[in-house]
Design a protein that fits this description.
Among the domains are: about 5-50, no CATH class; about 125-155. By secondary structure, the protein is mainly alpha-helical. Helix content is about 60%, strand content about 0%. The chain starts with a helix and ends in a 5-residue tail after the last helix. The chain is elongated and about 115 Å long. The longest helix has 26 residues, at about 85-110. α1 (about 5-15) crosses α2 (about 20-30).
Length: about 160
């Protein structure tokens, strides 16, 4: 057999398309005495993979297996209603209810009395607004190190 035929058999074997007879032929060709050394190693690997190991079941295995098969499977055994609802399912439900109530409480409090922003008018009358502006100007003047703000700015406008 030629090298090209052997390579075709190898491709078929590794693709999983080789029949048992072709696999046996490939194994014999790779393990033949005139085959190159790297082919012999590959032939030994194929031989190991081709022969299933001899497994001896432990004593009494068949009896135990038949006994187990005669028993009712766990998935067919009747269960009570409480056994099918573990504790964590109840806790998950309680947690979901508590989170929903907390969300509703937050939404109601947030939208019923919105907080004032920096840009909203905080003064209720003109005198309060004037006092607020004077305090802001005094703060700015002290930051700029003016001694007397009234001297610098003059009197109040009316």
């Amino acid at each position: 057999m030629t090298t090209s035929n052997i390579s075709e058999l190898r491709k078929k074997y590794y693709a999983g398309d080789a029949s048992l007879a072709e696999e046996k032929l490939l194994q014999e060709l790779l393990l033949s005495p005139d085959a190159p050394e790297e082919w012999k190693q590959e032939g030994e690997i194929i031989a190991l993979l081709s022969t299933p190991p001899q497994v001896v079941p432990p004593a009494g295995f068949e009896r135990r297996l038949l006994k187990r098969l005669e028993q009712e499977p766990d998935w067919q055994a009747p269960r009570s209603r409480t056994a099918s609802l573990p504790l964590f399912k109840h806790l998950g439900l309680a947690t979901a209810i508590a989170a929903s109530l907390a969300g509703i409480f937050f939404a109601v409090n947030h939208y019923s009395s919105p907080a004032l922003t920096v840009y909203e008018d905080t003064c209720l009358n003109a005198e309060a607004a004037e006092a607020e502006v004077e305090n802001a100007l005094l703060f700015v003047a002290s930051a700029l190190a003016f001694d007397d703000m009234n001297d610098e700015l003059g009197g109040a406008c009316e």
